[in-house]
Amino acid sequence: MSSSISGDTRLNNQTAYFHMLWASLAFAVMASVSHLAGERSDWQLVVVARAAVAFFFAFIIAKLAGVKLILFGSRTLWVRSLAGSTGMICNFYALAHLPVSDTLTLMNTAPIWVTLLLWLVFKQKPTTGIGVAVLVSVVGIALIQQPHFQSGKFAILMALCGAFCTSIAMLGLNRLQQIDPRAIVVHFSGVASLATTLFLLATNRKDYSAQLTDKTTLALLVLVGLAGVAGQIGMTMAFAKGQATQISVVALSQILFGLIFDVVFWNHAVNALSLLGMGMVVVPTAWLILGRTPKQSHDLIEVEMED
Predict the structure, then answer these.
(1) Segment 71-80 long-range contacts (CB within 8 Å, at least 24 positions apart)
(2) Could you give the CA distance from residue 24 to residue 29 in angstroms, rounded to a whole number?
(3) For 8, 68, 101, 154, which has the most beta carbons within 10 A of its beta carbon?
(4) 167-205 pLDDT, tens per residue?
């Protein structure tokens, strides 16, 4: 009986890692298209499109599937949605003011924040293997991107704030396993749509008709939203089945997808340090997918069962 339970747990973990891999691909597409859209329109409009288009398609998907939607929900659900909305604004600001490679490097410090929050808030001290995997993967990302951070300290700070907010959202997902992932995505996208629209009105009031009537710009904005909702659904499904720390490391694979896009579409040169960095991300990710998952601490399980 115990071996059967262990097998089911391992299968759930592997399924969670698979969901996070395809979600990472979607997020890499979103980041690249967001950078293109930002060259043709204001970044505030891009972030509104990311949220609004995602909400539109997430709502349709949920309704067609007969998912029960949640208007108010628990405190955890609202913390997840508000933290995710704040992180979205920070990240899109960084994408508009820093090179994509620099921004992705900073955004993917989220696993460090997750590990620290699990340790400091939930008293779940990371195992040596998980700690090494996080550190090696983050060093690998720095080697892949070789960031130079030439475009301003405030944009760097915003990207780091976005990563911190993302880590809070990740932990929130891990405590919402009883809610259908599609309902969580609809709630988050709806809150983000309202938050980003209010932010746009407060910071950059102007006539956007010229930008919205340009067919290329409009297509890019829609693609940003589509890729965003696909990645959001995948990430939500992943965190509903797996443990936050391990899933966070797998999420680093979006850097690999982004590097592939750079090479194929923008002729980005890959040097020896980049190849070394790729290996330092791939190896820990593969170890997490194929290896056994450590048991969660009793304290964290109790926290997850509170709602």
Answers:
(1) 73/179, 73/187, 74/176, 74/307, 75/307, 76/172, 76/175, 76/176, 76/307, 77/172, 77/176, 77/179, 77/184, 77/187, 78/191, 79/168, 79/172, 80/168, 80/169, 80/172, 80/173, 80/176, 80/184, 80/188
(2) 9
(3) 101
(4) 888 777 667 777 887 888 889 889 999 999 999 989 877
Question: In the chain, what are the domain boundaries?
Answer: 18-304
pTM: 0.73
Q: Virtual CA dihedral for 47, 184, 76, 22, nearest 10 degrees?
A: -70
Side chain identity at 82, as an amino acid letter? L
What the block records as the tokens of 202 is: 């407060």
d(CA 254, CA 163): 14
The separation between CA 202 and the C-alpha centre of its own chain, rounded to angstroms, equals: 26
Q: For residue 242, what is the DSSP state?
A: S
Spatial separation of the C-alpha atoms in residues 158 and 265, rounded to whole Å = 27
What's the token pair of residue 214? 């340009």
